[in-house]
C-alpha cells in the first residue's frame, strides 16, 4: 500500500515531535546535569602549593576553593580585574572570577563569559534574579548564581560585565567524534575520567572532560577540554544549523558563522555540555526570559540527538 508523499512527510514530522516529547518526559540526561553523588567528599587540603604551566603563581587547594578570591594564574592575559571579579563582596556576592575564572572561560558547569556583550551579561543576571532563568534539575552552580544576582549592585554588575565583554574570546575545546569514551565520574559538578584506561560506548551522550583535571580544579583560566561526541554529530549539526532543516535556523539570529550578532550571543567554541543544557532548558520551559519566545519554537521538536548534534557542531567552530 502506498501513501501520498505529503502524508508521509506529515507522519514523519509527527513521529519526530512525539519522539522529542518522549525524550523530555524521560527526564534530563544525567551526563548534561552532573550532580555530586550522595557519598561525594572533596579532597582534603594537605597544604601542598599547586602550580599550573606557564605561571609563577602558587596556591593551596583551600585558596583555589575560596569563593572570595579568584586565583589569577596568568595576569598578563587580561586587564586588571575589578574588585567584584577578583574578590566579590562578602557575605553574598562571590568573586565572579572564581567560578568563571579570571578572564571568563568558565567550564562545562557554567558559562564562558568572554565574547558576550556587557548588555547580555547584565540581562542574564537579571533573569537569574527574577527567577526567569533556572535549570531543568536543581544545580549548585545555578543556586549560587541566583544568590549572587539578588545581592550584587548595579554598579558592581556593570563593572563585571564590561570587564568580561572586553576580553577577546578564544577556543579551549577540542571536539572528538568517538564510538568509545573514557569512563567518568562526577567531580565537583563536572565529569572527570576514572583512573586507568577503561572505556565504554558513548551512546547518546556528550562526554566533556578537562585535558588535565588538576589544572581545571586549580581554576587555571588556560585549562582546555576534550568533548567526545557521537560519530557523525558534527556533520549532522552543520546540516541542521545551516538552514537546510526548517526547524533550525541558528544563523538568522546568531550569525552565519555562529559568532554572534547585535541581537544574540555567539555560540562558536562554547562548552557543548553547557550549550546542550540551554537548549534542553528552553525546551522544558525552565529557562524563560527575553530570548525564550524566539528559542522555544526552535527547540520544540528537537530530540536529544538533534541537540547533541547542534552543540557538537557549534563547539567545533573556532573563535
TrEMBL record:
Residues 83-168, 232-318 form the Cytochrome c domain. Pfam families: Cytochrom_C. Residues 1-22 form the signal peptide. The keyword Transport applies. PROSITE patterns: CYTC. Keywords: Electron transport, Heme, Iron, Metal-binding, Signal, Transport. InterPro entries: Cyt_c-like_dom (IPR009056), Cyt_c-like_dom_sf (IPR036909), Cytochrome_c_Oxidase_Subunit (IPR050597). The keyword Signal applies. Transmembrane segments: none annotated. PANTHER family: CBB3-TYPE CYTOCHROME C OXIDASE SUBUNIT FIXP, CYTOCHROME C4. This is Cytochrome c553. The lineage of its organism: Bacteria, Pseudomonadati, Pseudomonadota, Alphaproteobacteria, Hyphomicrobiales.
